[in-house]
Amino acid sequence: MSGPWDVVIVGGGHNGLVCAAYLARAGQRVLVIEQRPVAGGPLLTQEIAPGFLSSTGADVIGPLRPEVVRDLELTRHGLELLPIDPTVVAIGDDSTTLRLWRTVEQTQEELRRHSARDAAAYPTFHEFLMGLAEALDPILLRAPPDVQSPTWADQIALLRRALRLRRRGMDAFRSALRLPVQSLHRLLDEWFETDLLKATLAFDALIGTCRGPWSPGTAFGLLRHYAGVANGQGWAFVKGGMGSFARAVMAAAGGAGATIRTGTRVRRIMTEDGRATGVELTDGERIHSKVVVSNADPKRTFLDLVDPAELDADFLSQVRAYNTNGCVAKVNIALEELPRFPWREDGRPPPSHVRIAPSMEFIERAYDDAKYGGFSQAPVLDVFLPSVVDPSVAPRGKHVMSVLAQYAPYHLREGTWNARREDLAGRVMDRLEERLPGIRARIRTTEVLTPLDIERTFGMTGGHIYHGEMTLDQLFVMRPVPGWARYRTPIDALYLCGSGAHPGGGITGAPGYNAARAIMSDLKRIPRGAVAAHAMGL
Amino acid sequence: MLVVQGPPRVQRSRFPVQADEIKLDSPPLPHARHLEQRNGASRDGQGGFRTGVGRTYDAIVIGAGHNGLVCAAYLGRAGWKVLVVERRHVVGGAAVTEEVYPGFRFTVASYVCSLLRPEIIRDLDLPAHGFQVIPQESTFTPLPDGRYLLRTGDEQQTYREIGKFSREDAEAYPRYGRLMAKVAKLVKPILTMTPPDVGSMSLSELRKLLTLNRQIRDVTDEELHTFLKLMTMSSADYLDGWFETDALKGTICTSGIIGTFLGPRSPGTAYVLMHHYMGEIDGAYRSWGYVRGGMGAVSNAIASAARQTGVEIRTSAPVRRILVEDGKALGVELEDGERIRAIVVVSNADPKRTFLKLLEPENLPRDFVRAIQNYNIEGSSGKVNLALSGLPEFTALPGDGPHLRGAVSISPSVEYVERAYDDAKYGRFSRRPFIDICVPSTLDPTLAPPGKHVLSMFVQYAPYTLRNGTWDDQREAFGDAVIDTLAEYAPNLRGLIEHEQVLSPLDLERVFGLTGGNIFHGELTQDQLFFLRPVAGWSQYRTPIKNLFLCGSGAHPGGGVMGASGYNAAREIVGNGRRRRA
């Protein structure tokens, strides 16, 4: 399909594609413009050595909206999820291990080896978080209310969530009210005594966030994690690597009639009298549309792509204050053979997800380094081995491994990431070697992504994997900034559809889904003639 | 029979109580008697009081902290017969002045005043009882490099002083102050309201939330957005949005961490920052001040006002337990075995002490006990009080001057304060602590012998739970770390010290009965504020025990010498009586 376009979407990340698919299904003529040679953003599979297919950016899928999978028929378009079970094998000090499983019973069995008290508490804890995630679930698929003048519908919707929580009993309700503002340290200490268990649960909530378990508000991250468990599929690899997921969403968007132009870069979003009118590409080509949707993060959108003269000073200063400082580094590795795990596997298949974070204090100390602008002396490592469950991503008998290392602050106090990339890789390898002895000798190739590389490769400001910190001050009615949490922006006909909008980062598709709804409801209100005039650039 | 007969024995306050004047309307007499009638069955004659029956009161307040005294004074004004029982030999709790060394009167724990609700000052006519605030003149931050940051009540001077570091910051500073004051004003009505009971989900409680919502609608976008940010951000992040000068951010951010076990980079501390701004809303700049005669004078003034309404105060009368029968509070038993009964028992002790020490757990629902056990009340601050033979001389600003008649803050940068917090996180006191210093004798010579001074240092961080050793072993090392830190900025300090009093969190617990040594009766984090203070479902000063109420800082709106908890509790207690009567 060619122009004139109803909608131009800047950026073909998964949310941009989801938004495109829904808008195209609703009959809009949609063009997605992606700067990279393939769409999908950080959902990308690359060959790091012949036959080794590594997921460059994101590794696993969790809280993907089942509505999106169903509506866009992603399974028909080739999406195949490979569940991770045990969900994680945690290595503690002295190489003690702890396995968490998809079923509560198996996990409880495992916990008995560590602490009878924790084994007894775990089912209640699990039920509590699942209940909370379920009760809050509908909030994720709804634009946040306008805080200044919430509609009755919004108030009633929130009240219903509150009643739903209340119905779980006063004890659970009390915990639910406190959880969002608690620190993981406080919350988990109330429930459990085993350090390794607490650290393992804590890191689920901390991934991608530049906070330690002592920081208030971090317990909220657990909800994000449990949302992935609660709505059905649990955490999983994608068969063929994460790029396959991107291809499925692309196929769905294309199938619905959207056009995707890759290798094309937007220089700016064109505006006229406070209204977006289309985009200008780096080669000077101008594409007009009724509506422009940005899948780029809020800083990139408002500080790079839009003429600042179109925005008021207060809004701009809020966008500048929006925190997008990433703290995650990635090392992707091609392995000649599996690492030798220092524990007895008892004939069990090797683990596909290993975590090296022995205690909450260990994590907090890793964070302390980042607070003062340093890469953690002893980083927390989250290790994925997708080839264990998906032999298609590596040559026979060989493996791909990816290591997420935290905390690696985007702003270094000393040196630059270009100068310190090897330093980071060395520190990660030392730590891996310490816990998985002999691994260094098995490595064929490594690829290192510092936060700076993540920024450069995927266009994410600050290298933040969630398009901005997922702390309470940047969530819900405050994402990305207070007053503009409903996908609309101070510029008419310009919308946000990426992880910088509610409900935020992670591979959910929810911002794209919600944005499409907001756009459709606005498009129905705009008189046809006015739009046509704009669309033709008149 | 018990209380029922007799003429009103209450000496009314000088001004007749007007319902709309104080919001806390006096109930129609005979005040609390309907409660008595309801309880009568279990208490007339036999009950649990066969032995050692003492006198009977309408209300007994456990603890003569400032909130207990405020609560007692308002109950007294409402015509109730009230007894306050205090464990120590002095009233005031943590707001006391004591002559620890001959001639030197230390304002031992709490040291400055600002948050005390103006309603209370007015209603209880505290100035007539000797309450007088002397404003602090400045905030002075000496820096390790020999420079200093000085802020005074004179806007022009402050502009020049901040301008030495950054022109932008000097420009932004008054705007920041105005915005904080505006937002604090938003919160002000919340301080003296009873939080809604979110547990009940009843219509009347939900209406309260909607009323709040309506109040919010009247504010500008900027104020509302700032409020939302303050509720969720760290003070460091929030200040990074305003200023670039380390010393300025370092000093302002300490308002966000005083009394909490959090660092300036911890989310939620921006709220505490604002909490400390509430005192600045009525005056132009920093209405923080000394109380003439030390903080004990606040307590004495409230106590005197209370006595005037007929309240009895007994000191050196420690309570062993609260007497409960059939889920109702009947009175208290003192350590010496004396039992005193009352229709209503009000606890000014913190929630953990009240529910876990003064009551038997079997009298309380299990989930409630668990919630109280999880209530976070770990202290993080200590106090060092010095008796000095002269004034400290700061290298950065030698000689006497307004900088000695205000707050001196050892907080050269946010990172300095954050690193002090890092020590505490792992269970040791800060090697280089944040210190809030004042020399109240510069403005109030009554506190020290002529020419001599008392110097008060509020210190963070000093975690109640030490990883290695006990506070009894480490008290001295802690005092040394504090004095050494200050001596780096004022080298003559060591030579001036005549006496030294070091209070660790353990000492604060022992002396003042503050569980965990927490000066706010529990962390001021969002999971323990408003309708969650002390625990959700019990934020309305009531407790699972009938006729037992909370009136201390462990209830909404929390810590600081504010009096709001006592004021709100009195309103609920009186209102409770009226509702039950109806």
Précis, in short:
Chain A is an alpha/beta fold and 538 residues long. Chain A has helices at 14-25, 66-71, 104-112, 116-140, 152-166, 170-178, 184-191, 195-206, 220-230, 242-255, 298-305, 313-321, 360-371, 417-435, 451-458, 510-523, 528-535, and strands spanning 5-10, 30-33, 45-49, 52-55, 81-83, 88-91, 97-100, 236-238, 259-261, 266-272, 275-281, 286-294, 328-335, 353-356, 380-384, 399-406, 443-449, 494-496.
What does this structure look like?
The complex is a heterodimer of chains A (538) and B (582). Chain A is α/β, with parallel strands linked by helices. Helix content of chain A is 37%, strand content 17%. Chain A has helices spanning 14-25, 66-71, 104-112, 116-140, 152-166, 170-178, 184-191, 195-206, 220-230, 242-255, 298-305, 313-321, 360-371, 417-435, 451-458, 510-523, 528-535, and strands at residues 5-10, 30-33, 45-49, 52-55, 81-83, 88-91, 97-100, 236-238, 259-261, 266-272, 275-281, 286-294, 328-335, 353-356, 380-384, 399-406, 443-449, 494-496. In chain A, helix 8 (195-206) packs across helix 13. The longest helix of chain A has 25 residues, at 116-140. Chain A is globular. Chain B has 582 residues and is an alpha/beta fold. Chain B folds into 3 domains: 19-93 and 296-376 and 519-581, FAD/NAD(P)-binding domain (3-Layer(bba) Sandwich); 97-109 and 378-515, Polyamine Oxidase, Chain A, domain 2 (Alpha-Beta Complex), CATH 3.90.660; 138-280, no CATH class. Chain B is built from 19 helices and 18 strands. In chain B, a hairpin with a 5-residue loop joins strand 6 and strand 7. The two termini of chain B are 23 Å apart.
